């Protein structure tokens, strides 16, 4: 199953091609506890078809009821839910949501825009979608895909579109298992790659694709701007080759596990045997992960995923 936002745009495009008007809702801001982050999507038609989520179920029924009554025919519109929200609907989690509601009327213009948005999540170059709040006019701007998913001015909303987050795990290990589980919980598409038949056969996590193959042969064809590549085996025959190939891709995060001493030795090997220059070496996060004092496989995996999220959000260490 593709990550939820990609599945949402796939359905929206399908409905538009069938001649339906489509309403696209985007979470702009959250305050307090909220299960869905800024940028999360829900798409719906007037007859109640819908996919995606704004709150994990708290406000969707209210939105669909109001949509059926014609309340959002003049979209775009900003809607607030939660404490002091315009609807007075209190969320069980105690949070507050601000949502942008857009109407995509049936027709070529809507299908073209929805297809472009879908293609970006599938792997096309990132863009910034700018929406005018007065009339809903939209344009796609060049972007690197990193940073906050939502940016606001008084009259425009800018929504960052980037390929669906993909994590390629080069090599199976105890850390790799926890890393895959954390990544799936964070809505990453996860591919685990290892040449060993036994390791692949016993690696079974729902929603994770396992490929019995040398990771260095898969990485060039499976990486895009929204990809993180991590090597977690301590085996240089897997890890070093994965790094050599990963730095030649547009992956936004490339990291390999090991101590400071191991990392220094690896950097020298990659210069000498792998032919990497200093700019390529500098792209590698090694030692991988935030410095949390991690010891156990689960703690190391947590540090790895936290560092990936830090880079993805454009935050400095």
UniProtKB/TrEMBL annotation:
**Top-rank taxon:** Bacteria
**Residue ranges of the XdhC Rossmann domain?**
167-308
XdhC- CoxI domain location, by residue? 15-82
Under the heading InterPro entries, the entry gives: MoCofactor_Util/Proc (IPR052698), XdhC_CoxI (IPR003777), XdhC_Rossmann_dom (IPR027051)
Query: Which Gene3D superfamilies does this UniProt record tie to the protein?
Result: NAD(P)-binding Rossmann-like Domain (3.40.50.720)
PANTHER family according to UniProt: ALDEHYDE OXIDOREDUCTASE MOLYBDENUM COFACTOR ASSEMBLY PROTEIN (PTHR30388), MOLYBDENUM COFACTOR INSERTION CHAPERONE PAOD (PTHR30388:SF4)
| Protein name per Swiss-Prot or TrEMBL | DUF182 domain protein
Source species: Halomonas elongata (strain ATCC 33173 / DSM 2581 / NBRC 15536 / NCIMB 2198 / 1H9)
Taxonomy of origin reads: Bacteria, Pseudomonadati, Pseudomonadota, Gammaproteobacteria, Oceanospirillales
